[in-house]
Amino acid sequence: MTTTHPTDRTSPFPGAARAASYIEDDIDTAAVAAPSGPAAPAPEPESDPVDLTLSEPVEVEVEGPEVDLGTLAVTNESRFAQTGLRGALGRVGIKLAPSAAEVTAIAEAEQIRRNEDTVRQASWGRAVSILVANPKGGVGKTPVSLLLGGTLAAIRGGSVAVVEVSDDPGALTFRSEGAPSRGLGDLVRDADEIRSAGQLAGYTALQSSFAAVIGSTGPRPRLDGDHVTAVARVIDEYFAIRVMDSGNQPSSTAFQAAVEAADVLVVPILNAGDAALEAVAMLDGLRAAGDHAAGLANNAIVIRLHDGRPENPQVVARIDRILATNQLDHVHIVPYDAHIAERGQITLSKLAPATRHAIAAAASDVVTTLQNLAH
User: Fold this and answer.
1) Which of 146, 200, 209, 317 is least enclosed, having the fewest CB within 10 Å?
2) DSSP-derived pairing of the beta strands 241-245 and 128-132
3) Of 147-151, 252-256, 320-324, where does mean pLDDT reach its minimum?
4) Which one-letter DSSP state was computed for residue 288?
5) What is the pTM of this model?
6) Is 78 exposed, middle or buried (0-12, 13-18, 19+ CB in 10 A)?
7) Residue 266 is inside which H or E element, if any?
8) In terms of domains, do 92 and 139 share one?
9) Closest C-alpha among 265, 250, 325 to residue 300
10) Is residue 189 part of a domain?
11) What is the domain extent for residue 325?
12) In angstroms, rounded to a whole number, what is the distance separating the alpha carbons of residues 323 and 279?
């Protein structure tokens, strides 16, 4: 394919043109000020100044039939170094190839852009749901629910609800931002009366990420399967994505209803033997149940968290083998983050960049799986 565009003398690096003009000004000034004898007569101005601007378009060959037109504007710049000493030289007109470190950084930035585009542009014909589950307590189900839901909402501009589906009150409200006056217990009671998005908003805590959290605000009756189904139904009327933070009882009716109401399963684990083994036992149980539950297990996405505690390399290697043996191919590693480890309210903007990027990669994988599975 051939693309045409007008070409002029403008450098792709404005700083280089400015620096060149400063250098030329200095040279001209020095030449005038230098005491080099009698002043030479000024040259006669040319009657017909030469126009160096090219008026005809120049053809540029673009390889391949498939071109991402959105990246063409930065293609020329990315060929030359932008940072470090190489970048500084480029700004005065000495263009050098990027260093190995800059090439790596460019590739990582491009992957981050692609992950965010995947999340932003995904669409479905109905509301979709993500279940975050592991029977082992303390492995990060609630933080992952908030991080994943918050990332999806931040990239997509909202329409994501994070809801507690554990039998007994969990820590979702405590770990989220805000102090709502009403929550899950009230919504269970009033689910049949909700008639608008504004009415449902009264039971949520809106996060700075634009996710809406529905957790327990105090004592409430034990959640059962009917409660989960009713809450899921009303949430799906007004939100495009529902993220469910589950409890530790896979045999409960609440968990079973959450499984039936889920499209994708996300399994958080730590690099600890019990966390991995209990997760595998849950997946085995889902596979044994067959049909929809087995599909969730077979397409499960694992998020491996680091909580700062010492990790035995032999245990880590064993977990690697456990995941491989159970054909868990979608695994995302989230590095240690002090903000998560504080065990307080989680705010996306307070996470380290590496954490945000790892969660965005997991969110992209979740969205891709949803697109493949949700009908």
Assistant:
1) 317
2) parallel
3) 320-324
4) H
5) 0.78
6) middle
7) strand 264-270
8) no
9) 265
10) yes
11) 126-373
12) 10
d(CA 369, CA 162): 19
Query: Among all chains, which residue has been given the structure tokens 């037109």?
Result: 69
Rounded distance between C-alpha atoms, residue 250 and residue 339, angstroms: 29
Rounded Cα distance, 76 and 363, in Å: 31
**pLDDT, tens digit, for every residue of 324-368?**
999 898 999 999 999 999 999 999 999 999 999 999 999 999 999
What CATH number has the domain bearing residue 142? 3.40.50.300
Q: Which two tokens stand for residue 318?
A: 């064993």
The whole-number pLDDT of residue 96 equals 86
Which of 267, 229, 225, 230 lies closest to 245 in space, CA to CA? 267
Per-residue H/E/C for 208-252: CCCCEEECCCCCCCCCCHHHHHHHHHHHHHHCCEEEEECCCCCCC
Q: For residue 111, tell me if it sits in a domain.
A: no
Inter-residue contact 144 to 351 (CB < 8 Å): no
Q: Based on the domain organization, do 83 and 146 belong to the same domain?
A: no
The residue behind tokens 């390889």 is 63
